Structure formats: structure tokens, C-alpha cells
Amino acid sequence: MPTNKKLALIIGGSRGIGKAIALRLAKSGFNIWLTYHNNHAAAQETKKEIELLGSACTLFCFDIANYEATKAVLGKITDTIVPDCLVFNAGIARDNLMVWMAKEEWDAVISTNLDGFYNIMHVLLFPMLREKRGRIVVISSTSGQIGQAGQVNYSASKAGLIGAARALAREVGKKNIYVNVVSPGVIETEMTDKLPKDKILPLIPLGRFGKVDDVASVVNFLCTEENMYIHGQVIGVNGGLAI
Fold first, then answer.
1. Is 178 considered catalytic here?
2. Which of 46, 106, 152, 201 is buried deepest, with most CB atoms within 10 A?
3. What is the pLDDT of residue 3?
């Protein structure tokens, strides 16, 4: 197992954008800690692909919406090993018009997307502050910047992440911890398969939907660039959908 590499913790890294980020960082020389909820097959496949790139990959299976589970899995490990980069990518969608939205649809999205951020940061932040180093990249969404009909819960959670990341950036910048947000637009993943893309495409100036690698490349830059003066920023990866 390579031990002289930097370490990246990817929260929600088994599929889609998270997987692409994990693979891109592995190519950049990071060992990977990868968390996922319940798709064991996808996580194992991602682990194999990371290892083929010459990096180590450790899998952690738990629900980030559960504070006690998060603390039990990551708490003891981070007492001695602190990731160089933390990418918070975990998120779910339960789309519905607000007038029809069930309480469970609201709670599920807020618990995972926003409470999950608190749970992860509450475990990871003190060790990073102790080491006085680190890079945190939060994956939000264009929906969190401009809103989207049928996604009041999702938009609220992703907007909340932007506010949380910006506030956190003010708190930890002096400790050499960089915090930034990457905000994808319509990226071709399982989560966007059912969107009415024929209606969305004309709204995108670049005339195409995004690829997972479009997002991963920006995250990789924020995690690896040595000449770094980007802090507390929201970087849109949306083809011009939000200008």
C-alpha cells in the first residue's frame, strides 16, 4: 500500500460525480478514503479502479445523516490520520412540487445534504485545525444558486451548503485550511437521467450537458494547486446555465 502519498476523503464517492473525483485525485497521487451509504457493488468497483491507478482505497459504509454512525466510523481514525483534502459530495434528491411535498421528502434531503455536512465537519474539522492544513471542497448545485421548480428541498439544502462553506471559510482561513464550493449544473449521471433535458438544453449556452470529469477537474485543481489564493468561493460548472 502506498504510504508516501497525500490522502483525500471523498464523502459520497462510489458513483457519478463522487467516483469521478476519486479517480481524478487518485491519478494526481492521492490515496483515497471513500464513504458510501449502501451500494456495496458500486463502491467495490470504484475501489478496484482506484487501485489500478496505483493508489490505496479504504471504504467506509455508513449513513452520514446519522451523527453517531459518522462519529463511530471516522472519529477514532481521524485522531491519528488527518486527510489532506475533504470533498463533501454526498447528496440525494426527492423532487416534488412544494405544494405536494411530503414531510419525509423534505426531511430526507435536508438530513443527508445539510445535516450530513455538519456531521462530517464536526468529526473532521478539529483534526484539520490541529494540523493547521487542509483543503475542503463542498459540492453544491446550480439549484442552490438560482433555485429550481420541483426542487425546493434540494435547492434549500444546496443553498445552505454554500452559506455554510462561506461562513466556515471565514473561520478557518487563518489556520491554512482552504474552503471552496463547486456548483455543478446538469451533469450526466443517474441523478439527472429523468430530467426533461430537451427543455433544459436550450438554456445552456455551451449547448451540451456536463460530464462528471468536468466537475472532477475543478475539484482536482482546488485540491492540488500549489499557488492557491482561492478561498470561500463558489465555482460554477454549468456550461453557462447560471450567469
1. no
2. 46
3. 58
Q: What is the pTM of this model?
A: 0.95
d(C-alpha 110, C-alpha 113), whole Å: 5
How is residue 225 written as a grid cell? 494547486
**Residue that has been written with the C-alpha cell 434549500 in this structure:** 156
The share of the chain scoring above pLDDT 90, in percent, equals 91
* Per-residue cell: 241: 446555465
- φ/ψ of 162, rounded to 5, equals -65, -45
pLDDT in tens, 215-242: 999 999 999 999 999 999 999 999 999 9
Domain ranges of the chain: 6-234
Cβ neighbours of residue 98 under 8 Å, at least 6 residues apart? Answer: 152
CATH number for the region 6-234 comes to: 3.40.50.720
Mean pLDDT of 26-39: 97
Nearest-CA neighbor of 184 among 42, 20, 30, 66? 20
